[in-house]
């Protein structure tokens, strides 16, 4: 059920990412047969980790974000307590294979995961509440999200490209133009600050101009084109000056942490290989434990057993 409205934050957040799981060879091949594009070498297959939570606004400045990204040491007055996520719920889904009239029908884990997240949003969204959707630049995630209609008005929905992934692309450009670490850092710091101030388009133009001035060719030119193409494709999700002023989260730390705690710490231990069914069962169990409804779930199914269940896990 939806959490009590009085316990929710002012902003509802949907976020999602992928995390690989080592599969047994047979099930990896079975999933591979249903993929539209070739998988990476090996037997790892992607699970889609999705999370929905609420949080109160936290207004920051571009300088604050840059200082955090570069871990600057600053002597300041005690910081205001950062709002904590409320009722964080998380799930992870592998692709599903459904048998229908003798034929195996594949369902993408991305579709299953984002459909779950969309249903969670429908249960929890309140009238007039902003819905912030934060993800990295993976096109398949954003495309699938467009097909999962949450019935939240467009003017209340804010799509944000994770600033940590933006930072990684800025560093890629910095390494093309500079060899020394201190010059790379100065380059990245300046461009990130400008992006956070809303100057995405001028940064793209500047990178292309520098590529021309340096007469880049081959791999260096390809790298700059990749960075500029990434920014141009996601430019409408990079209005960070507006997001910071409104107090919206701009980083996907919640889902990155979920990928680690829910999947990596349990599913990627030495020598582990999972069947599709076994992996999904463990993902469901881990999702219950990592979400806010572990005790309520056990109380509803097995009254009086929640504390014992938690201790055993």
Please, could you describe this protein's structure?
It is a single chain. The protein has 313 residues and is an alpha/beta fold. 49% of the residues lie in helices and 17% in strands. The protein has 13 helices and 7 strands. A hairpin with a 2-residue loop joins strand 4 and strand 5. Helix 3 packs across helix 4 and helix 12 packs across helix 13.
- Estimate the strand proportion: 15-25%
Shape summary: globular
| Alpha-beta content class | alpha/beta
SSE string, helices as H and strands as E: EHEHEEEHEHEHHHHHHHHH
How big is the Rg? Answer: 22 Å
Instruction: Report the mean per-residue pLDDT as an integer.
Output: 89
DSSP helical segment count: 13
- Characterize the main sheet: 5 strands, mixed
* Unreliable parts: none
- End-to-end Cα distance, whole Å, is 24 Å
What is the share of helical residues?
40-55%
What's this model, at a glance?
The chain is of the alpha/beta class. It contains 13 helices and 7 strands.
Which properties best describe this structure?
five-stranded mixed β-sheet; 13 helices; globular; 313 residues; two-stranded antiparallel sheet; alpha/beta
Set out the fold topology.
Elements: E1 11-22, H1 25-32, E2 44-55, H2 62-69, E3 86-93, E4 96-100, E5 103-107, H3 109-124, E6 131-135, H4 139-147, E7 157-161, H5 163-177, H6 181-196, H7 200-213, H8 218-233, H9 240-246, H10 253-267, H11 276-290, H12 294-301, H13 306-312
Parallel strand pairs: 1-6, 6-7
Antiparallel strand pairs: 1-2, 2-3, 4-5
Helix pairs in contact: 2-6, 3-4, 5-6, 5-8, 7-8, 10-11, 12-13
């Amino acid at each position: 059920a939806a959490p009590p409205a009085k316990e929710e934050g002012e902003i509802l957040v949907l976020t999602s990412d992928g995390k690989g799981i080592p599969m047994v060879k047979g099930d990896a091949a079975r999933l591979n047969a249903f993929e539209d594009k070739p998988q990476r070498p090996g037997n790892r297959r992607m699970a889609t980790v999705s999370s929905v939570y609420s949080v109160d606004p936290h207004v920051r400045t571009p300088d604050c974000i840059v200082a955090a990204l570069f871990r600057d040491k600053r002597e300041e007055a005690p910081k205001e307590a950062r709002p904590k996520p409320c009722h964080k719920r998380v799930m992870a889904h592998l692709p599903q294979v459904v048998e229908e009239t003798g034929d195996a029908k594949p369902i993408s884990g991305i579709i299953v995961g984002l459909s779950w997240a969309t249903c969670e949003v429908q249960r929890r969204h309140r009238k007039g509440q902003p819905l912030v959707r934060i993800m990295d630049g993976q096109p398949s995630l954003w495309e699938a999200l467009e097909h999962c209609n949450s019935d939240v008005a467009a003017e209340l929905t804010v799509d944000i490209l994770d600033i940590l992934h933006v930072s990684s692309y800025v560093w890629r450009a910095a390494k093309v133009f500079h060899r020394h670490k201190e010059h790379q850092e100065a380059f990245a710091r300046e461009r990130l600050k400008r992006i956070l101030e809303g100057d995405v388009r001028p940064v793209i133009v500047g990178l292309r101009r520098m590529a021309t001035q340096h007469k880049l060719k081959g791999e260096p030119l390809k790298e700059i084109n990749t960075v500029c193409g990434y920014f141009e494709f996601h430019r409408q999700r990079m209005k960070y000056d507006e997001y910071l002023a409104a107090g919206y989260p701009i980083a996907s730390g919640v889902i990155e942490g979920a990928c680690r705690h829910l999947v990596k710490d349990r599913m990627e231990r030495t020598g582990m290989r999972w069947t599709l069914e076994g992996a999904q069962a463990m993902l469901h169990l881990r999702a219950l434990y990592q979400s806010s409804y572990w005790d309520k779930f056990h109380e509803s199914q097995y009254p009086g057993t929640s504390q014992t269940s938690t201790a055993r896990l």
